[in-house]
Design a protein that fits this description.
CATH architecture of the largest domain: 3-Layer(bba) Sandwich
Distance between the termini: 62 Å
Helix content: 10-25%
Strand content: 15-25%
CATH topology of the largest domain: FAD/NAD(P)-binding domain
Number of domains: 2
Shape: globular
Number of helices: 12
Largest sheet: 7 strands, mixed
């Protein structure tokens, strides 16, 4: 049977936002065609939560992007993994589920994204969730209970996790039973997109049900440009095994290709800074200087300690241990492989002057890099830490008109004056927690950074800071008359009819925490804008909940 080449809506990208859009548009009775370059997400390396470090480092699943030399980090190039697979980055991420703080969305609305304050987005977070943490504290009225996305918590069986939660309180931080609920600030258990021992990506939550129930189609190929005729998007050109083909959209084209590929595709389609496009021989359709600008990310370091007792996950960090974990997961969907091992963390203020929390901790009961490449020898544990807000902004540009070539990416990490001060504070906060009485029986010595001076921490950050893999912002949402905005508050590309961008690239400012949850929310809310139906009613309870009590 020939592949379909026409649909009401053509969505480029099957990831966090794209899968949610496909589900909601298909549910409304429309024909939907999802374009995805990557292949299947089947197999244990993606579906087993404990194997999370593998897919993000495999060319089969990852676009393999890297930054240009970052001047603030001594010219280092940092990895920027992006999902090249069904489910997009939700199929290769760390599965930590964080909505963000109410203050983040207040900033969105104040910067021109009207209707995207927390009161208006909270109903969409609830619509997408099926939360399984009600018995673990928190107020269920802030959470969703029947959405497609299962949100659960790990067993927290490792004793180091309990020590971390206690140590955080000993260091003077509050405890929060549900940071996605009424109060974000504090130390507490993490929510994850894991269900019954499996990664619950948007491919599992949204895309497969959309295909089975609503007839949504998936077509593999590389989207090379949006077809724009007389100022309106008419379809997408696709590079496939058959060669170059055109996919027509009778209603709209929606780009949900992610933080890097959505702005890249706009640029190749002639939407972006006019002079730069002309210099590459790309015909300018809409001169939008904001395309590719406003790029943001979270940066972090790992504060690591050696463990006196053999209780960390290092026991499994060998061929036999990994085989045992894999077998238990394969046959029972249980054991260490059934969790991402990032089961607790914290959302803290770096100073009393912070309006709301600005430092995040991820606690892991092993001393190992997030990408799994360089573990410390022996038992250990660590806190991933870093400031969540920076004034630094980067950019995505093209160096060639070839759509298959990677773009040039630079985040300009550590180039804002406050970045160094904020990283010193975040690092010292983590060091303080690891030295609390709750860790006394476990803490042997600090592996890294092993220094406390300003100069020592600065050198450590410059040499060892890594991306938290949260790129966003390069197609900023704002008011239609804002010359640097790319999309309006209904996610429509300004200056081109019938075209939207609906993914994390439209974030005006990066949210506080991991980005998968707000990316899915964007897909959910954008679907209602596309359908032109009534938006979910704002939750008036949160009007005053921008700043939490210090």
């Amino acid at each position: 049977m020939a592949e379909p080449r026409k649909a009401d809506y053509v969505i480029v990208g099957s990831g966090s936002a794209g899968a949610a859009l496909a589900y909601r548009l298909g549910e409304a009775g429309h024909s939907v065609l999802v374009v995805e370059y990557g292949g299947s997400d089947a197999g244990p390396l993606i579906q087993m939560p404990g194997a999370l470090s593998y897919p993000m480092n495999m060319a089969h699943y990852d676009w393999g992007y890297a930054t240009e030399p970052e001047p603030g980090l001594g010219g280092r190039r940092l990895a920027c993994p992006r999902g090249k697979v069904i489910g997009g980055s939700s199929s290769i991420n760390g599965m930590v589920y964080v909505r963000g703080h109410a203050g983040d969305f207040a900033h969105w609305a104040e910067s021109g994204a009207r209707g995207w304050d927390y009161a208006h987005v909270l109903p969409y977070f609830r619509r997408m969730e099926q939360w399984h943490g009600a018995g673990d504290g928190g107020d269920p009225s802030w959470r969703g209970t029947d959405g497609p996305l299962h949100v659960s918590r790990g067993p927290r069986a490792n004793p180091l996790i309990g020590a971390f939660l206690k140590a955080g309180q000993e260091a003077g931080h509050p405890y929060t039973a549900d940071y996605n609920g009424a109060v974000q600030e504090g130390v507490g258990p993490f929510d994850t997109t894991i269900w019954q021992g499996r990664r619950w990506s948007t491919a599992n939550a949204y895309l497969r049900p959309a295909v089975a129930r609503f007839g949504v189609k998936i077509l593999r190929g590389l989207a090379t440009r949006v077809v724009i005729e007389e100022g309106r998007a008419r379809g997408v050109m696709l590079r496939t095994r058959e060669g170059e083909i055109r996919i027509d959209a009778t209603r709209e084209v929606i780009l949900a290709a992610g933080a890097i590929n959505s702005p890249k595709l706009l640029l190749h389609s002639g939407i972006g800074p006019g002079r730069a496009l002309q210099a590459l021989g790309i015909e300018v359709v809409a001169d939008r200087p904001g395309v590719g600008r406003n790029l943001q990310d979270h940066l972090e370091v790992y504060v690591q300690a050696a463990c006196r007792e053999p209780v960390s996950l290092y026991s499994y960090w060998n061929l036999f241990g990994k085989a045992r974990v894999g077998a238990e997961w394969l046959f029972r969907k249980s054991g260490p492989g059934a969790t991402n091992q990032i089961e607790a963390g914290a959302f803290l203020r770096s100073s009393p002057e912070a309006e709301y929390p600005d430092v995040q901790f991820h606690f892991i009961p092993i001393a190992v890099r997030y990408d799994g490449k360089a573990s410390a020898q022996g038992h250990g544990f660590q806190i991933h830490t870093g400031p969540m807000r920076s004034e630094a902004r980067g950019h995505i540009t093209l160096s060639t008109p070839d759509p298959a070539a990677p773009p040039s990416i630079r985040f300009n990490y550590m180039t804002a004056p406050e970045d160094w001060r904020d990283f010193r504070r975040a690092t010292r906060m983590a060091q303080t927690v690891l030295r609390q009485p709750a860790f006394a029986r476990y803490f042997d010595h600090e592996i890294q950074p092993g220094v406390e001076s300003d100069e020592g921490i600065d050198a450590f950050v410059r040499e060892h800071a890594e991306s938290a893999y949260h790129p966003c912002g390069a197609c900023r949402m704002g008011a239609a008359d804002d010359p640097m905005a790319v999309v309006d508050p209904e996610t429509r590309v300004i200056g081109v009819r019938g075209l939207r961008v609906s993914d994390s690239s439209i974030f005006p400012r990066i949210t506080y925490g991991n980005l998968n949850a707000p990316s899915i929310m964007v897909g959910e809310k954008a679907a209602d804008h596309v359908l032109g139906q009534g938006m979910l009613a704002a939750d008036e309870r949160v009007r005053e909940r921008v700043a939490e009590p210090a």
